[in-house]
């Protein structure tokens, strides 16, 4: 099912209907399986990524394979806002906790997609290109990993549930093919 869905996306890509095609929640073994079954490597893989959930093995694999690693839930759905380490670093840089976490993802080479329903917060989350976290602070945030998922854990999904996404123009459209 997963390989069949991906082959359908490959066709759309070859026909020029999609500029790029990608997947979501694929761990290394899912990507390896796809490589065996299909011809086109995904252009992007969207995976949970925040200080508590650093999917670094997948990130590294994606880098080696030329797959853009996109991190979702970068604010851990708000859980980072009460974290003492995040708050301390935010105070040091005179930035908000959200900006610190978005910046941390970016400095780790991750395409990050914070979400807010509020215009001012969307703007705030974008204002992260005029400062840089020092190595020690990157490491302190990196040390917060505890393996928790704020979304779901796709590691043991072997069947048809992992979703395949397609990217149209510059917009990411995530479509589940469950
Ligand atoms: N592929 C997948 O399986 C998958 C799974 C989960 C999520 N995602 C995607 O990932 C993206 C974001 O993830 P997410 O929504 O799960 O979590 P998130 O971006 O980590 O957190 C969103 C929460 O943080 C709040 N927030 C955002 N900016 C803020 C700020 N500057 N100050 C204070 N609060 C702020 C939002 O509330 P307000 O809206 O009230 O500002 C919302 O409650 C979404 O586009 C989502 O579709 C993908």
UniProtKB/TrEMBL annotation:
InterPro entries: AKR, Aldo/ket_reductase_CS, NAD(P)_OxRdtase_dom_sf, NADP_OxRdtase_dom. Pfam families: Aldo_ket_red. GO terms for molecular function: oxidoreductase activity. Belongs to the aldo/keto reductase family. Residues 4-141 form the NADP-dependent oxidoreductase domain. SUPFAM superfamilies: NAD(P)-linked oxidoreductase. This is NADP-dependent oxidoreductase domain-containing protein.
């Amino acid at each position: 099912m997963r390989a069949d869905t991906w082959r359908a996306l490959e066709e759309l890509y070859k026909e020029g209907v999609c500029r790029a095609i990608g997947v979501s929640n694929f761990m290394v073994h899912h990507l390896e399986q796809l490589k065996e079954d299909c011809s086109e490597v995904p252009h992007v893989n969207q995976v949970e990524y925040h200080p508590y959930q650093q999917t670094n093995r997948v990130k590294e694999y994606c880098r080696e394979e030329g797959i853009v690693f996109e991190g979702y839930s970068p604010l851990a759905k708000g859980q980072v806002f009460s974290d003492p380490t995040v708050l301390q670093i935010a105070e040091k840089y005179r930035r908000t906790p959200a900006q610190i976490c978005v910046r941390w993802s970016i400095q780790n080479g991750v395409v990050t997609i914070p979400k807010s329903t509020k215009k001012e917060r969307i703007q705030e989350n974008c204002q992260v290109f005029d400062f840089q976290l020092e190595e020690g602070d990157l490491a302190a945030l990196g040390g917060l990993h505890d393996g928790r998922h704020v979304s779901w854990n796709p590691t043991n999904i072997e069947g048809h549930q992992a979703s395949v996404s397609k990217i149209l123009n510059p917009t990411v459209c995530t479509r589940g093919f469950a």
